[in-house]
Amino acid sequence: MRPISPLMTKDLIAQHNLTDDEYKKIVEILGREPNITELGMFSVMWSEHCSYKSSRVHLKKLPTTGPRVVQGPGENAGAVDIGDGLCAVFKMESHNHPSFIEPYQGAATGVGGILRDIFTMGARPIALLDALRFGGLDHAKNRHLVKGVVSGIAGYGNCMGVPTVGGEIVFNDIYSQNPLVNVFCLGIAHKDKIFLGTAAGVGNPVIYFGSKTGRDGIHGATMASDSFDDQSEQKRPTVQVGDPFTEKLLLEACLELMAGDLLVGIQDMGAAGLTSSSCEMASRAGNGIDLDLTDVPRREPGMTPYELMLSESQERMLMVAQAGKEEECIRICKKWDLDVAVVGRVTGDGILRVKDQGQVVAEIPAKSLADDGPRYERPYSPPGYQDMLTNLNYDALPDVKDASAALLSLLESPTIASKRWVYEQYDHMVRTNTMVRPGSDAAVVRIKGTNKALAMTVDCNSRYCLLHPYEGARLAVAEAARNLVCSGAEPIGLTDCLNFGNPERPEVMWQFVLAIEGMKDACEYFKIPIVSGNVSFYNETNGLSIYPTPMLGMVGLIESADKTMTQWFKQNGDVILLLGKTKEDLGGSEYLKVHHHREQGSPPLLSVEAEKMLHDFMLKVIHDGSVQSAHDCSDGGLSIALAECCISAPDTRRGAVIKLGLDTLRLDALLFGESQSRVILSVKPGMVDRVLNSAWDSGIPATKIGAVGGDRFVIDVEEGQWSEGCHIDLPVDQLYDRWAFSIERTLNGT
Amino acid sequence: MKAKIYVTLKQGILDPQGKAIEHALDSLGFKNAGNVRVGKYMEVDLEEKDKVKAEAEVKQMCEKLLANTIVEEYRYELTA
Amino acid sequence: MKAKIYVTLKQGILDPQGKAIEHALDSLGFKNAGNVRVGKYMEVDLEEKDKVKAEAEVKQMCEKLLANTIVEEYRYELTA
Amino acid sequence: MLKIGVVIFPGSNCDHDCQHIFKNVLGQYVEMIWHKETLLAGLDAIVLPGGFSYGDYLRTGAIARFSPVMGAVKGFAKKGGLVLGICNGFQILLEAGLLPGAMLRNKSLHFICKDVSMKVENAATSFTSAYESGQVLKIPIAHADGNYYTDPVTLASMQANAQIVLRYCTPEGKVTPDANPNGSLDNIAGIINAEGNVLGMMPHPERCAEAVLGNDDGKQIFLSMLESLKGNKKQLKMIPA
Ligand SMILES: Nc1ncnc2c1ncn2[C@@H]1O[C@H](COP(=O)(O)OP(=O)(O)O)[C@@H](O)[C@H]1O
Ligand SMILES: [Mg+2]
């Protein structure tokens, strides 16, 4: 007998965020009305978060295959072959909403979640990167969020002993009510020892291990279940608290379990906890699972089946072991001081059957729950204001008057300023692999036991995506790849975290669809497969959506670790070269925002052909040892990139003397425009001709623009056809001071 | 006046510190100690002499800064 | 019995956390709050019913584990 | 080959890094020691690695010091065996009473991870003999509780006995308040016991002991240990970094 259930009222169904049609489908699947536990299980599994109901039809378009791909989307994380019998396993996840409610715990549990996604695959996590978006630092609330999120990431990642080697932060008031916290994690696994979330083998035991289950994160739906809880009304914590110490034990226990021949499948309990892990594992294997809740370790007495199935308590895992290996699994979990219990068996009938105290409390076909959720092809169309955004009359904007002042204020604008204050709170060196620490175009970690290294970067210019979602997405792919090649790495795989507003709005859906198209086209052209990803919709408050932010995490391989490259100038006397062409690309630039308070215009145009040629050339000249440094031009344009080459080295700062011609450009476009496919190189004097000739041979515009040396930053721009030139001459120490301490000063109010 | 402020995690919220300490006490042989909860204790000197006003002030301090009311609850005592 | 345990830094030892809170209170406009000290507050349930024995037990817990007496001092209360 | 023991506490996370240095960089035999072990046989030295033992809950090192293995570590130290505690390992040595003093939160209240400069104040120990006295090193720190404290009497006696082995300084070698990253008393970065066989240090020498990571200033800590264990000081001192 099922326990008495309330009548399925309209209210109850609505509280569970299910539409009438969705509810009808549930009744059809079950052949009867669901009980409250079943309703809760459907509601979480068919939520946008778990079922990708608005995005799935579009995500299918992304290129996910390639010669290196070992595991594409669909599992806990993607995996790419890096040779030597090893795989890079990586993924990115968002924890936006929880981080707004409680920044420390929200960000911390975000880190915990993505780490579990990686180590459930059998990979030891070796690097984290964090991609963050906040509103402007002039608001106290935003400063509070920044401090909380950064210390939450530090608190969890540092304790786990996984270095946070890089990331990205952008400040824009559009994120004030909807900050973004996206975390990327990469681990290394043996290619033939990748573990999947599958419940194969009828009769195999299903084992719960990790932390106890509490009433964490049971959201609005909780109210509905209260009426069945004969305990007195309690405040239910919807905020989950992370316990990185237990997660560290969980990590080590998992890797020890996986080293033996014990497991059939394993999956972490993320969103929708016990429900999602059990039905997804069963569904992947075409099997069912009989779960008995009686032995599920609990933190509190009196928990209902509804609560147990929906709890999002952290640091928990579900494994399917080989029959007969239970004892060994339990021994290992106990060695690591973890709670552990056999909670079920794999069955052949395809049903997820949940029992509690001898009674069946839920009985649902696992596949229906996991895979037969609704799919929507939501309508999409551009917003009415799109033309207003892109049409910008540049003639109405005066050209820059005081180039030195403009340079300094851009350098200290928080989006461009050094992120030192952030990454010094992250342990970015533990595991002793970090060859390039935060502060260069990409982070680089060596792979012990091989000659190889991996480079990683997270990128997305969401203003470009606002102005032109398709171009913006292509530009994000190009920039990520450029950051990798400037570090000497060949791009081999991509993960994404697609942060958008409410998909039920046609203009948001339009942004989403176009961004997917852009990613697809760029990835296909560059032959970079997307092996995992995540979608975060409903980033809107009071009808105001965030800018479309398809965050990308890209991974590159450096076959020979000694070919790793960094962005800063190395030696006085080296010659500075500029690769690529500078055009009139002020649209969507950071300069327009900081100096003209406009986020308008068309983003720079990308020629994928030119970009790809640049990548090939970069890899060639870095690998043959002709260059001393390489840095791509991105936010803030040429002059900011040059300044970064001078001031971003870990211990020494170097001056530079640069000479540029204007030709037909505006001065602000030359100095601060964000034309794509440009890189600044420094080379030894004896190498200049060789590199220049080789560039021209490869069809890449290349010019000698100056030399490294002295303690001043000098840019001379000769007068052009339309504009006057300028003379910038500033002490490098001054540039450094403005750039390096800006965020810290703002946060401390000094 | 002096305010003594106690900030503790709300009921039902995971308390990893408490759990670890409980475990440690147990392995130290304090077998009959259980249910350890860890919180913060703060003392603040106030210039305010009026008890009612002081109380209002402390309450505000707790709400605004000293406690994270999403996961924590607080109580306080005022002494002269 | 229930033990309530307070662990604070010894007088004379600089308390950077207290200083930071004082600073934050000040910038929030609580101008007449000062001398902030921050410590730990712990609750432990004891099976022991005898007050004298319970007290001895709590004292031991503090000395051995809960406080580092080089830099911290502790006090406790026992309630039924 | 020497046999070096690296202890794993629940929450240790620099155990593999220490193993890597002794085994792969310096070619020694490394035994990984589970914190529940109580018998340590045939070891030449013991390393307590960095990390967050027991999550650093309550206080750093406070719970780890009661691990069963710590009894054996104490016995080993009492007999004159070399014990090196790095970061969390140092914190555990303090809590266990193998070194004097205690750790407080960093003055900034933040976790700090960055390269810092420090000066070898005593190059006559088993852990620093491969350095020159007064040599300035660049070694990264990564901790939230490295603000060392002890009472004035203990400090004076440590100073008198040259037990303060490493002090934070400017890159030029000046010991100033500005060069102190965490507020530690007397700019202390590392101390040794009076007998000279137990060293605790907050900086992570294992993170800068290979040229491929761009810095190997920390390598001589380990070389000094090997040198002293082999009782063959002069010869090893010649090995280029
Ligand atoms: N949130 C963060 N966490 C860690 N490192 C960061 C973070 N934000 C930026 N960084 C680091 O600062 C450097 C500069 O970042 P960014 O300007 O975004 O680089 P790019 O424009 O080349 O993508 C990079 O090395 C990056 O990894
Ligand atoms: Mg870059």
Q: Please give the radius of gyration of chain A in angstroms.
A: 27 Å
How many helices of chain A does DSSP assign? 27
Radius of gyration of chain D: 16 Å
Largest sheet of chain A: 7 strands, mixed
User: Low-confidence stretches of chain A at least 5 residues in length (pLDDT < 50)?
Assistant: 220-236
Q: Which segments of chain D are poorly predicted (pLDDT under 50) over 5 or more consecutive residues?
A: 233-241
Distance between the termini of chain D: 20 Å
The residue fraction in helices of chain A comes out at: 25-40%
The fraction of residues assigned to DSSP E strands of chain A is 15-25%
Adjacency order of strands in the biggest sheet of chain D: 2-1-3-4-11-10-9-6-7
Put simply, the count of helices of chain D is 6
Oligomer: heterotetramer
Shape designation of chain A: globular
Helix and strand run of chain D: EHEEHEHEEEEHEEEHH
Number of domains of chain D: 1
Write the layout of secondary structure elements.
The complex is a heterotetramer, with 1 copy of chain A (750 residues), 2 copies of chain B (80 residues) and 1 copy of chain D (241 residues).
Chain A: H1 10-15, H2 20-30, H3 36-45, H4 48-51, H5 56-59, E1 69-71, E2 78-83, E3 86-94, H6 96-101, H7 103-119, E4 124-134, H8 140-160, E5 164-171, E6 180-190, E7 205-210, H9 222-226, H10 244-259, E8 263-268, H11 273-285, E9 288-292, H12 305-310, E10 316-321, H13 326-335, E11 339-347, E12 351-356, E13 359-365, H14 366-371, H15 386-390, H16 403-411, H17 420-423, E14 434-436, E15 443-446, E16 453-459, H18 462-467, H19 469-485, E17 490-499, H20 506-526, E18 530-536, E19 540-541, E20 544-545, E21 549-558, E22 575-579, H21 590-596, H22 608-623, E23 629-632, H23 637-647, E24 656-661, H24 667-672, E25 679-683, H25 688-697, E26 702-708, E27 712-718, E28 726-731, H26 732-740, H27 742-748
Parallel strand pairs in A: 4-5, 9-12, 17-18, 24-27
Antiparallel strand pairs in A: 1-2, 2-3, 3-6, 4-6, 7-10, 7-11, 8-10, 9-11, 12-13, 14-15, 15-16, 16-21, 17-21, 19-20, 22-25, 22-26, 23-25, 24-26, 27-28
Chain B: E1 2-9, H1 16-27, E2 33-46, H2 51-66, E3 72-79
Antiparallel strand pairs in B: 1-2, 1-3
Chain D: E1 3-8, H1 15-25, E2 29-34, E3 45-48, H2 69-78, E4 82-86, H3 88-95, E5 102-104, E6 112-120, E7 136-143, E8 147-149, H4 152-160, E9 164-168, E10 188-192, E11 198-201, H5 219-230, H6 233-237
Parallel strand pairs in D: 1-2, 1-3, 3-4, 4-11
Antiparallel strand pairs in D: 5-8, 6-7, 6-9, 9-10, 10-11
